[in-house]
Amino acid sequence: MFAVTILGNNSALPAYDRHPSAQIVTIYDQLLLIDCGEGTQMQLSRYKIRRGKLNHIFISHLHGDHYFGLIGLISSMALLNREQPLHLFAPAGLEEIIQLQLKVASTTLPFPLIFHPLEKEGLILEDSKFTVETFHTQHRIPCWGFLIREKKDPRKVDKEKAVQHHIPSAYYQSLKAGYDYTSKDGSVIYNDQVTIPNSPARSYAYCADTLYDERLATIAKDVTMIYHEATYLNGMEERATARFHSTTSQAATIALKANAGGLLLGHFSSKFEELHDYLKEALEVFPNTQLAIEGVTFKI
Amino acid sequence: MFAVTILGNNSALPAYDRHPSAQIVTIYDQLLLIDCGEGTQMQLSRYKIRRGKLNHIFISHLHGDHYFGLIGLISSMALLNREQPLHLFAPAGLEEIIQLQLKVASTTLPFPLIFHPLEKEGLILEDSKFTVETFHTQHRIPCWGFLIREKKDPRKVDKEKAVQHHIPSAYYQSLKAGYDYTSKDGSVIYNDQVTIPNSPARSYAYCADTLYDERLATIAKDVTMIYHEATYLNGMEERATARFHSTTSQAATIALKANAGGLLLGHFSSKFEELHDYLKEALEVFPNTQLAIEGVTFKI
After folding, report:
1. Which residue is closest to A106 within chain B, CA to CA?
2. Which of A43, A78, B234, B257 is within CB 3.0–4.6 Å of B217 for a Cys-Cys bond?
3. What is the extent of the structural domain holding B23?
4. How many Å separate Cα B288 from the centre of its chain?
5. What is the CA radius of gyration of chain B?
6. A168/B225 Cα distance (integer angstroms)
7. Are A170 and A121 in a shared domain?
8. B143 and B191 in one domain?
């Protein structure tokens, strides 16, 4: 299981029952929350997503529509007597705000809140089944994107054949990694005799809020899915640039240059009640585009 | 027009589409927002309440379910290019939080945000048509209630009679205040010849979060309507006291002792999906009780 569920797809001003940025990435048995605009905890309830499975939260930047819901979510976890640690990856300034909010409420969290300030590009989380890297995006204030890569052995064991060759199951992990097997009598079983290639590891790039920036296409090269903001429609490039945002065609161009498998468009302006123009314009540049509709889960 | 519209009636943990505390008091042409839990700006949109008419916000205390929605509301006002001043009455600690949140976002508000720290009981706002007083309530952290009183002249002018007696309209304000009129020939027109008694000034006491505290009945003496929290049902007095909250009967007893015209019950625990027990229990003590249902406007 590797999928993303949209909780909020709107830009800063909530409108038309669209909410500020938040999405849940499900990867195997873990839930990762990326951004946490106001009302995210209510959206989690609405879509019946269990807060208890959430151990990692990533905040791209400190514009309120990306984090104002975080303190409410943390407070609710405390009221529900959460005990397991919560890891928070965010720009450094957020820690002081949270600590201040807990202090004025005389609240001591019943669980460890482990703050990981985003400081430089690269690997920020390594799990047994996935990694998360962060990268800069170009926005009005410091802003970070996140790249989640599934970890996958390059080969799968063909168990029938491995058994035929009397390879002990303790050696299977080495087979998956590509090693040959040397039996006790010295004969070599070549790796490709007992394994088949695994499907490629999947990946998801969340490009946060950003100007049109071709560097993102390099960072997200060959990802299975890219999320790119499209606050504005075509023809509004000047406004987009002035506000450090992107248009539909700019987002789709990044997906195209990245050779991404799919594009998820979000962060829609409150100016537009209808979203079909966003889709139409992006499809002209990049065919495999979908709108990040709230409540929908997209397989990666 | 003097009424209260409920935006949030739940205690800290949002549940069953009930939201954390927030209510709008409409008094003549002014909207006053009392408390501002997470999602209040969305609730304002949902119930089509115009943010532009909101010039005064009152925050009872710094538990998150009473203020986490404030920074989002302020940010949206900024995005909408509000220019008129916004007055914020709140415990002193809130100012630092807001300033920090604006700073990390590199946001400069396009309107004056005038912070009035709550420091002592008494008058905090005097308008031409109403006053707002504040008072302490007994909660785990410092907490303030608000008492809104309509200003009303004691008498109304009976225009037909005033004209018969040749009283100039410039003198009507004095008539309303109860003065007699002496005409140029020295004859006295007694006030009660040309005026009738006005209906009594209405008042609304918002008792915030609180323990059972009979002092509140004295403060809210004879109010037209009292809002009192009832987080818990009868039989949960011990828990209520431990958490500095009240039960239904405690809330109703305060309304009774205050000789209030009506009681509005709110701040319901997330333990209960159904609210009818709250009403039933309170009605046994105080007949004119209503539940603070979200989206409903109660005339004061």
Report:
1. B141
2. B257
3. 2-152+199-299
4. 18
5. 22
6. 79
7. no
8. no
Same-domain pairing of A188 and A144 = no
- A58, A23 Cβ separation under 8 angstroms: no
Tell me the one-letter amino acid at A119: E
Tokens matching residue B117: 């720290």
Residue B277 is among the residues annotated as catalytic for this protein? no
d(CA A99, CA A105): 10
Complex ipTM, two decimals? 0.90
Kindly state whether residues A20 and A117 are assigned to the same domain: yes
Query: Domain with B210 in it: what CATH number?
Result: 3.60.15.10
Say if residue B127 is in the same domain as residue B8.
yes
Distance of CA A223 to the CA centre of its chain: 12
Q: Which of A171, A196, A221 is the last residue of a domain?
A: A196
Which of A196, A222, A248 is the C-terminal boundary of a domain?
A: A196
Which residues are CB-contacts of A164 (< 8 A; sequence separation ≥ 6)?
Answer: none
For B100, the closest of A14, A39, A96 (CB atoms) is A96
**Residue A189: CB partners within 8 Å, gap ≥ 6?**
A165, A167, A180, A181, A182, A183
pLDDT in tens, A68-126: 999 999 999 999 999 999 999 999 999 999 999 999 999 999 999 999 999 999 999 99
Kindly identify which residue of chain A lies nearest to residue B12, measuring between CA atoms.
A76
Question: Is residue A102 located within the same domain as residue A88?
Answer: yes
- The yes-or-no verdict on residue A50 having pLDDT over 90 is no
Per-block mean pLDDT, blocks of 10 residues, chain B (300 long):
97 93 96 98 95 94 98 96 97 97 96 98 96 97 97 92 93 93 91 92 97 98 98 96 97 98 97 96 98 97
Which of B68, B140, B273 should be substituted to probe chain A, the one whose Cβ sees the most A Cβ atoms within 10 Å?
Answer: B68
Q: Burial-class residue B288 by CB neighbours within 10 Å (0-12, 13-18, 19+).
A: middle
**Chain B: residues touching A (Cβ < 8 Å):** 12-15, 19, 38-39, 41-42, 45, 62-65, 68-69, 71-72, 75-76, 79-80, 91, 93-94, 96-97, 100-101, 103-106, 140-141
Residues on chain B touching A65 (C-beta within 8 angstroms): 75
Is A180 in the same domain as A246? no
Check whether residue A147 and residue A75 sit in a common domain: yes
Count of domains forming chain A: 2
